[in-house]
Amino acid sequence: xxxxxxxxxxxxPVNRLIEELSRLPGIGRRSAERMAFFIxxxxxxxxxRLSKAIxxxxxxxxxxxxxxxxxxxxxxxxxxxxxxxxxxxxIVEQARDLISLEQTGMYRGVYHVLTGRLDPLSGVEEHDxxxxxxxxxxxxxxxxxxGEQVREVILGLNPNLEGDSTALYLSxxxxxxxxxxxxxxxxxxxxxxxxYASRAVLADxxxxxxxxxxxx
Length: 216
Hints:
There is one protein chain. With 216 residues, the chain is α/β, with parallel strands linked by helices. Helix content is 43%, strand content 12%. The protein has a five-stranded mixed β-sheet with strand order 4-3-5-6-7. The chain has a two-stranded antiparallel sheet with strand order 1-2. α2 packs across α3. The protein is elongated. The model has no long low-confidence stretch (mean pLDDT 89).
C-alpha cells in the first residue's frame, strides 16, 4: 500500500501527528507511525504529560544571558553558583558539549556557549555566534558571572577543521585582551565530537589542558 493510501486510512489527527513526528531528526515514516500509535494507545494523562513537557520546553527554556547555555532561570545555575571559579571560562560550541563536560565532574569553572562555530563556506560568520558576548565578558567584569574578572579562557571546541579554525581566531583575539588561553588536551580524537567522547577522555582533556602557543 502506498504512503498516500496509508495516510487516507488514518484519521486526520493521526496523520498530522505522524507528519510532525517524522520531521524529527532520525525519525522516518515507519518510526513516526509506531510513535504515534504508542501515544494513541497510552493513557490520556501520560500523553498529556508529554504534551506539557514539549510546551514547557518551548515556553520556559531560553539562553542564559551570560554564557548562552540552555536554562530555565536567568542567569543559569552554573553562572550563579558561588562554588564555581568564574575567572576561568571554558568555551564550547553547543550546550550539549557543556553537558558532556559537566558529567565528568572534573571542571569547576564556568562556560561560554558559542552556539556553533565559524564556517564561512556555510555562511556562519562571527555575528552569527555569541563571540561578541564572550569578548564583552572579558572586557567588562560586570558582564561576567558574579562580576568576576576573567583570567583564563579554555578552548573546548571540537577537534575538526571548523573547530580548529574557530579556536585559532579566538586565541588571537583573546590574547589581545591579556587573558591566559589554553585548550583541552589532544587526547580527543581528531575529527570527533565532544558529545561522543567518554567521561574518562573528557576528564583527561580537562586536566591536561595546554597553553596555546603565541605563534598559533
